[in-house]
Amino acid sequence: MKVYIETYGCQMNEYDSEIVKSILREKAYALVDSAEEADIILLNTCSVRENASRKVIARVHALRHLDDGRKKIGLIGCMPTNHRRDLIADAKLPIDFIAGPDSYRRLPSLIEENRVSGLKTCDVRLSRSETYSDVHPFRTGGANGWIAVMRGCDNFCTFCVVPYTRGRERSRSVENVVAEARRLAAAGYKQVTVLGQNVNSYQHDGHDFAYLLDKISEVEGLQRIRFTSPHPKDFPTSLLKVVAENLKVCKHIHLPLQSGNSRILDLMNRTYGKEDYLALVDKIKSYYPAMALTTDIIVGFPTETDEEFADTVDVVRRVQFDAAFIFKYSERKGTIAARKYPDDVSEEKKTERIVRLNTLQKQISLAKNKAHVGQVEDVLIESLMTKKSPADMQGRNDGNKLVILPKGGGYDIGDFIKVRITDASAHVLKGVII
Ligand code: 5AD
Ligand code: SF4
Questions:
Q1: What CATH number does the domain located at 2-123 have?
Q2: Does any ligand 2 atom lie closer than 6 A to the CB of residue 155?
Q3: Cα 57 from chain centroid (whole Å)
Q4: Which ligand is nearest to the CA of 159?
Q5: pLDDT tens across 197-220, in order?
Q6: Residue nearest to ligand 2 atom 1, measured at CA
Q7: What is the position in ligand 2's atom list of the atom closest to the CA of 198?
């Protein structure tokens, strides 16, 4: 049986697709690169905003058009746990099986049971212990390897569906994570990105995230360690020191703000206020002034007024993030916000706010990127082409900024090169090899 997997959403889903590939290969399934060639099509789905779910449903219908009815289509990931009843009950939705993020070991039997019965099969049970720590992800090379060190989330931010789709927090042991990092280094990977829904809540046998990062950095051959996504509430000085001082840990922190207003942050159950967030940023900058900072922001959370939104604008101005991912609030079924707060900020208001913030952030990103012009930076090559040109290659600097440069010098994916930055836009740096 030939399987094709398409991945939507976050980096955890990218990693999970590698886990699924490994599980299916063990059972003698063959992996193929296109839906056309496949007997079984898996869509690894995201449920974090309505748009993400809508995209997947549209894709299912488009895939069915390609097909003579014999292909099996399965949805895996976050949509199955969040929309289980609708996905199963909707007779017009042409899918064959669904599996949640903790049920990937059951995929071969779900596929088989569907083949025998012809009925939609389903396993969306969440586990308190599943970490797939014994599964070696099937990776296809490149500069970066993902390692999920914890799964699930116990924070219950009121807007977020993740605690329901991915269940409770659980962490792998330090030894097990370090063994995976060693395997990556032995396979030639130069960079690992340590993943978790709430990565700095990592906790195993009394060891915290700062300890884990240090241990991973001892693995020979690895040159860069990144991590995502942390929560501002779990940023003790010990972690800040590791990020600021450990030479292998990249000087970049993605620090989701969500809102700059303390009343809205409270309604979101973020457990920090505007001043706490600003104080943390000051502290980060006092340890490492040039730390690259990026963030996530939601505009139009229920009851957010213009004055409260102005606080978010104020924080964005004061922090000067290198980049920000800004989203309109999207009500998710089953979340605390969906139960308690009507989605009462109009679509027009949300649009007005997102446009305003994006315009401001673009100016800030441009100014921050322009400040790199003339500098020499270490770039890890990720791809030997860019979206726009096969004559260029691209990689990232330590602060995770995309750097585009003309190909040359026989350099390949995974190589580190010294690059002089010659130009910058709001989204990328341009440079030349020196
Ligand atoms: N609506 C809009 N954005 C959301 N996010 C999470 N849930 C929602 C939602 N219901 C955003 C947050 C989070 C990022 C991954 O997605 O900003 O940090
Ligand atoms: Fe969602 Fe909050 Fe958990 Fe992040 S920390 S996954 S936003 S509940």
A1: 3.40.50.12160
A2: yes
A3: 21
A4: 1
A5: 999 999 999 999 999 999 999 999
A6: 160
A7: 5
